[in-house]
């Protein structure tokens, strides 16, 4: 053994760690060590323990037995000396003094503390800003003087125990390595990660190459070609369509070769499919130069031509909102790409992308989550400012929502519209939010394309290995302001004065490659000329470009079709009676050794009796039967929400818990051996992200029933952006169908303004062009059919379903199994069912209503013995069932017509149904002429918070509806 290694073993070895043992004893009893060592240890800061631990290579433990204190020198430990150990020390050190030993140890500890701080804070001295406008003061903790090093210490060898891969190094060498690794054009934040393996992997990956990018000649040329395409496309658009808004990528061109690297390296690591989501900036560049959309198609759209064939209906959308899909071939490894369409609401596409990723992973049986990955491209101000980012990150490690990690790529313009960073965020970096899920963050200068590509490769390797989120923060700039028609000099004159004189990324990189003798200047110019010639050809072709097909009914959507507006198509939703009974009884079973809750046991016994008799099927049973029948027919069911397993109102109990072990039992997963999968997930306390996630799932999986349940209907308020911008209008804008079901508990029962109304007026106001279905059903049988209708039709539409609370256990809200059997179907309108009323021509009033108020009206009519009032139930509000209602109205030619609702007049359904009811009356020349409103008066609040007032209001509206004067 060499003397140096012997010294290492003596000083820092795991078996005879001299300094480590001293420190361990100091921690137990400071008086047990020599006063000089006592003072030495007291001067060290809080990082000392971890640094000493790194030196020793083992955790702090005192050795047991006779080899403990007796093995240490008396002068050090304050105890009796062991002659053998002293002799060993003299042999190794040649009589080194304790003072010298302390000095050498202090050098090592301080150097390792310095190294550790560079790992933690080195990014704060890095050079990210290509414009050089960000003036940061050098961080004091990165100054060697902070640790007691002076100019005279630069060339003294220091023992490092192979930290930075070195056994010993001078301070000068250490600082040079640290600056190159952590303070160049790449800065890394990873020391916040708690998992030791992940942290060690990143550290090794960064430090092993000193963060130097090592590209071959062909690799460098490929980066230059990608930069040329990115820059050339934007310049061409600016030339041909000067000032036209396109949200160009200028200043962030390095993203294009970075995405190429993510795809190429990811494909080598098992990636088969990537789902992308991004805001406006650079979208057209991504569509063409990364996704492979024809340049001629984009030029045609700039000329005002549609992006889809003429025979495809829909409103369409602006170019920088559109998505597409394609296959990319990397030496035989084909990766499928899909860019999700999204509106101007920037980050709101994030959960949609993750939902699509999860669905595609399920389809591929990608249990390891390495074949399908999400890539989200963000803006800096939006990433920091929009809460949906945090909500989406919060899903990343949850059982029902994890996708194996997402690569987040931030195009950091260093500005948000006209707002400077120090006005738009409180943290140092726009990416700080990602630390909540311990994601590593790579900050990189956008004008160093090799560095950008380098960290992109590390990022996708990390994601594929650890299946966790990772962030690339590419600091760049935007050359034309917020958009091409903007004048950014109004608000950022200094920045844009600098930008106007700043060479482009491609120009800088081409110059670098010329200096490196990778290309000649003429070769660089030729690459530009060849690409511009290609664009000219594509531009000429755009004059006659015609989109040849729409891709919205391909792949998993094959066999489905577009549906004409106002169709009465119901689908085949009835099920054989014997199947209903078989599955119903299965829902009542549980393992013999399962300690079931006694209350649930009684409920299951009652359910079993109703199944056997075929009568008194309640809401929860009908719902479960709908799911069960779809599952055995091969259609998956996915239900999520904040209390979906049990149900907010304890009606569902789709998941049962052993009362002794809390082991779960889910009856819907034990129907038949070959059934489709059933998932039910209690979601985090998020509406926006979870609804977006489930919507995204439904975009990729049309053959499963996807449902989101609000805890109360008004909880949907916080998902309104997803509902407005995606669910209600996605098919019209982007030709993307969805069969998502929103379950929104709704009904006025004295629970106050926040838990009464699901705001049906909002959904009805957005109803047009057959964009979705709005229902408020009143029978379990109709619930059964409306769920199955979602899957059994040849098209898909979102369903907004207002669900009950009190009706879940209402004695009148029951159905028979026969109403769900073969030949039965969903009823948009439920006519009068009482047999003891007067003949139709003697009926004096028709009351039309929807939802829970029907049962209040029915019970009051029975208690008063009223015989000349009929009650019609509007089970589907949109598409409006005009034909069915007109037929019902014609039965009662001498009646007037009342619309009754619980909601205030300016809310609920009245403003939607008013004219439509009138149209139905006029079509039969009915004597009623126009409907009359009965309900609560207009109100700013959805409901009163006082139970006594609620009861008074409810009694009045019921009386007004039933009293014919």
Report on this structure.
By secondary structure, the chain is of the alpha/beta class. It folds into 4 domains: 3-170, no CATH class; 217-307 and 317-545, 3-Layer(aba) Sandwich (Rossmann fold), CATH 3.40.50.970; 577-820, 3-Layer(aba) Sandwich (Rossmann fold); 834-962, Multifunctional 2-oxoglutarate metabolism enzyme, C-terminal domain (Rossmann fold). Helices cover 40% and strands 12% of the residues. The chain has 33 helices and 24 strands. Helix 18 links the parallel strand 9 (441-445) and strand 10 (470-475). It starts with a helix and ends with a helix. It is an enzyme of class 1 (oxidoreductase). Its cofactor is thiamine diphosphate. E1 component of the 2-oxoglutarate dehydrogenase (OGDH) complex which catalyzes the decarboxylation of 2-oxoglutarate, the first step in the conversion of 2-oxoglutarate to succinyl-CoA and CO(2).
């Amino acid at each position: 053994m060499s003397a140096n290694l012997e010294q290492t073993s003596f000083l820092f070895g795991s078996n005879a760690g001299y300094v480590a043992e001293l420190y361990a004893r100091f921690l137990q009893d400071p008086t047990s060590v020599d006063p000089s060592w006592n003072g030495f240890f007291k001067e060290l800061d809080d990082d000392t323990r971890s640094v000493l631990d790194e030196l020793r290579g083992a955790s702090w433990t005192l050795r047991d037995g006779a080899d403990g204190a007796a093995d240490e020198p008396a002068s050090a430990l304050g105890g009796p000396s062991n002659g053998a150990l002293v002799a060993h020390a003299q042999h190794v050190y040649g009589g080194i003094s304790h003072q010298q030993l302390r000095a050498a140890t202090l050098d090592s500890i301080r150097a390792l503390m310095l190294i550790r701080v560079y790992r933690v804070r080195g990014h704060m001295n890095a050079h990210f800003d290509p414009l050089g406008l960000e003036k940061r003061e050098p961080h004091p903790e990165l100054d060697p003087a902070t640790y007691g090093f002076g100019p005279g210490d630069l060339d003294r060898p220091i023992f490092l125990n192979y930290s930075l891969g070195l056994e010993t190094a001078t301070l000068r060498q250490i600082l040079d390595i640290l600056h190159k690794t952590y303070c160049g054009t790449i800065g890394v934040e990873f020391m916040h990660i708690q998992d030791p393996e992940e942290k060690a992997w990143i550290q090794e990956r960064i430090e092993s190459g000193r963060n130097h990018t090592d590209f071959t000649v062909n690799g460098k040329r490929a980066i230059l070609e990608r930069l040329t395409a990115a820059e050339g496309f934007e310049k061409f658009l600016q030339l041909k369509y000067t000032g036209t808004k396109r949200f160009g990528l200028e200043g962030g061109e390095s993203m294009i070769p970075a995405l190429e690297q993510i795809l190429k390296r990811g494909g080598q690591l098992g990636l088969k499919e990537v789902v992308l989501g991004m805001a406006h900036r650079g979208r057209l560049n991504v569509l063409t130069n990364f996704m492979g959309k024809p340049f001629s198609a984009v030029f045609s759209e700039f000329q005002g031509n549609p992006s889809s064939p003429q025979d495809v209906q829909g409103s369409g959308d602006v170019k920088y909102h559109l998505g597409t899909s394609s296959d990319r071939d990397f030496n035989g490894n084909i990766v499928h790409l899909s860019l999700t369409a999204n509106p101007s609401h920037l980050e709101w596409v994030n959960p949609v992308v993750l939902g699509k990723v999860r669905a595609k992973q399920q389809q591929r049986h990608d249990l390891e989550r390495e074949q399908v990955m999400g890539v989200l491209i963000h803006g800096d101000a939006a990433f920091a400012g929009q809460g949906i980012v945090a909500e989406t990150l919060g899903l990343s490690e949850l059982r029902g929502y994890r996708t194996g990690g997402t690569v987040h790529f931030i195009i950091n313009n260093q500005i948000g519209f006209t707002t400077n960073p120090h006005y738009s965020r409180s943290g140092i970096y726009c990416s700080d939010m990602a630390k909540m899920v311990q994601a590593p963050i790579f900050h990189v200068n956008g004008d160093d394309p090799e560095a950008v590509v380098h960290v992109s490769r590390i990022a996708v390797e990390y994601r594929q290995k650890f299946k966790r989120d990772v962030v690339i923060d590419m600091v760049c700039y935007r050359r034309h302001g917020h958009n091409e028609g903007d004048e950014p000099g109004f608000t950022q004159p200094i920045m844009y004065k600098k930008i106007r004189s700043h060479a482009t990324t491609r120009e800088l990189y081409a110059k670098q490659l010329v200096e490196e003798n990778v290309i000649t200047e003429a070769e660089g110019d030729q690459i530009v000329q060849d690409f511009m010639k290609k664009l000219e050809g594509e531009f000429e072709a755009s004059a006659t470009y015609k989109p040849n097909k729409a891709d919205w009914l391909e792949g998993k959507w094959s066999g489905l079709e577009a549906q004409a507006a106002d169709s009465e198509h119901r689908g085949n939703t009835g099920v054989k009676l014997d199947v209903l009974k078989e599955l119903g009884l299965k829902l009542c079973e549980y393992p013999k050794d399962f300690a079931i809750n006694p209350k649930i046991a009684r409920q299951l016994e009652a359910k079993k009796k109703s199944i056997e008799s075929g009568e008194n099927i309640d809401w929860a049973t009908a719902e479960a039967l709908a799911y069960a029948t779809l599952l055995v027919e091969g259609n998956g069911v996915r239900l999520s929400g904040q209390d979906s397993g049990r149900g907010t109102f304890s009606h569902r109990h789709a998941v049962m818990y052993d009362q002794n072990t809390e082991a779960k039992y889910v009856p819907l997963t034990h129907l038949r051996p070959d059934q489709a999968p059933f998932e039910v997930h209690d979601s985090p306390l998020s509406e926006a992200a979870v609804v977006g996630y489930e919507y995204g799932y439904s975009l990729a999986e049309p053959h499963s029933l996807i449902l989101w349940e609000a805890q109360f209907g008004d909880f949907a308020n916080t998902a309104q952006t997803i509902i407005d911008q995606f669910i209600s209008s996605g098919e019209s804008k982007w030709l993307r169908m969805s069969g998502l079901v929103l379950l929104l508990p709704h009904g006025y029962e004295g629970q106050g303004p926040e838990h009464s109304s699901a705001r049906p007026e909002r959904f009805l106001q957005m109803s047009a062009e057959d964009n979705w279905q709005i229902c408020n059903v009143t029978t379990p049988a109709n619930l059964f059919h409306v769920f199955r209708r979602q899957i059994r039709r040849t098209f898909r539409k979102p369903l907004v379903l207002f669900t009950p609370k009190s009706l879940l256990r209402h004695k009148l809200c029951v159905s028979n199994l026969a109403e769900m059997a073969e030949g039965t179907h969903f009823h948009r309108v439920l006519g009068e069912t009482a047999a003891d009323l007067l003949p139709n021509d003697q009926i004096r009033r028709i009351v039309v209503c929807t939802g829970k108020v029907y049962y209040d009206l029915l019970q009051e009519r029975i208690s008063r013995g009223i015989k000349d009032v009929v009650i019609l139930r509007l089970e589907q509000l949109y598409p409006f069932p005009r034909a069915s209602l007109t037929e019902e109205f014609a039965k009662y030619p001498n009646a007037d017509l009342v619309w009754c609702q619980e909601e205030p007049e300016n809310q609920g359904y009245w403003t939607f149904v008013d004219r439509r009811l009138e149209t139905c009356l006029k079509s039969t020349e009915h004597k009623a002429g126009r409907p009359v409103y009965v309900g609560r008066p207009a109100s700013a609040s959805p409901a009163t918070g006082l139970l006594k007032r609620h009861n008074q209001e409810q009694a009045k509206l019921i009386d007004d509806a039933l009293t014919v004067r």
